[in-house]
């Protein structure tokens, strides 16, 4: 379950949109993103959302949907649950968001906590689960699939592929080249299979 990622700034996100189709690099490569700027549930994050005219625009949304009076309590969306609600026409939490609110989160990296590996926390001195940083090789940034509604968004997750499975039993739905239009289009459901995506990881 993704609880931390390295987002772009709003200026960088806009530069990415402005550079689409030009072949130029809109942002610089950062091998080790600054953890002070990482997003966590409750963070305001720049996303790409459809502009209603066939393009995209940058919007600042809050990571996490409220639940039972708790703000940003639900920050991941299981693709299987959302698709089931959509298929059955249920009024579940994700039915409307997956149907009408699919969006894109530009990131430099995302993090997953290992199920068993522990390290000593520099802040508390206590054992904590080791986190692994995942990136798309050769990419300054890449896109995660997400859903949004009413100023909030949630990262869509799916079954882990060979890159993530040794660390965690879920992974964000990472989009490869050319897949952003599919996620925003009518045939988005088949993107649940991420077995072809290769990621690099580094323990922290």
TrEMBL record:
<dbReference type="GO" id="GO:0106300">
    <property type="term" value="P:protein-DNA covalent cross-linking repair"/>
</dbReference>
<keyword id="KW-0456">Lyase</keyword>
<comment type="similarity">
    <text>Belongs to the SOS response-associated peptidase family.</text>
</comment>
<dbReference type="InterPro" id="IPR003738">
    <property type="entry name" value="SRAP"/>
</dbReference>
<dbReference type="GO" id="GO:0003697">
    <property type="term" value="F:single-stranded DNA binding"/>
</dbReference>
<dbReference type="GO" id="GO:0006508">
    <property type="term" value="P:proteolysis"/>
</dbReference>
<dbReference type="GO" id="GO:0008233">
    <property type="term" value="F:peptidase activity"/>
</dbReference>
<keyword id="KW-0378">Hydrolase</keyword>
<dbReference type="Pfam" id="PF02586">
    <property type="entry name" value="SRAP"/>
</dbReference>
<keyword id="KW-0190">Covalent protein-DNA linkage</keyword>
<dbReference type="GO" id="GO:0016829">
    <property type="term" value="F:lyase activity"/>
</dbReference>
<keyword id="KW-0227">DNA damage</keyword>
<keyword id="KW-0645">Protease</keyword>
<protein>
    <recommendedName>
        <fullName>Abasic site processing protein</fullName>
        <ecNumber>3.4.-.-</ecNumber>
    </recommendedName>
</protein>
<keyword id="KW-0238">DNA-binding</keyword>
<dbReference type="InterPro" id="IPR036590">
    <property type="entry name" value="SRAP-like"/>
</dbReference>
């Amino acid at each position: 379950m993704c609880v931390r990622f390295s987002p772009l700034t709003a200026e960088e996100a806009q530069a990415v949109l402005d550079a689409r189709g030009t072949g130029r690099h809109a942002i610089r490569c950062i091998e080790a993103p600054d953890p002070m700027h990482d997003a966590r549930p409750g963070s305001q994050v720049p996303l790409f959302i459809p502009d209603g005219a066939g393009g995209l625009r940058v919007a600042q949304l809050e990571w996490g949907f409220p639940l039972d009076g708790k703000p940003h309590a639900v920050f991941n969306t299981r693709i299987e649950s959302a698709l089931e609600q959509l298929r059955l026409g249920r009024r579940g939490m994700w039915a409307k968001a997956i149907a009408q609110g699919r969006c894109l989160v530009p990131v430099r990296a995302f993090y997953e906590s290992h199920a068993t590996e522990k390290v000593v926390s520099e802040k508390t001195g206590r054992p904590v689960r080791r986190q692994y940083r995942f990136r798309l090789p050769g990419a300054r940034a890449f896109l995660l699939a997400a859903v949004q509604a009413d100023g909030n968004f949630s990262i869509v997750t799916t079954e882990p592929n060979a890159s993530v499975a040794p660390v965690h039993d879920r992974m964000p739905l990472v989009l490869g080249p050319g897949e952003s239009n599919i996620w925003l289009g009518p045939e988005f459901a088949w993107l649940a299979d991420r077995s072809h995506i290769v990621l690099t990881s580094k323990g922290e």
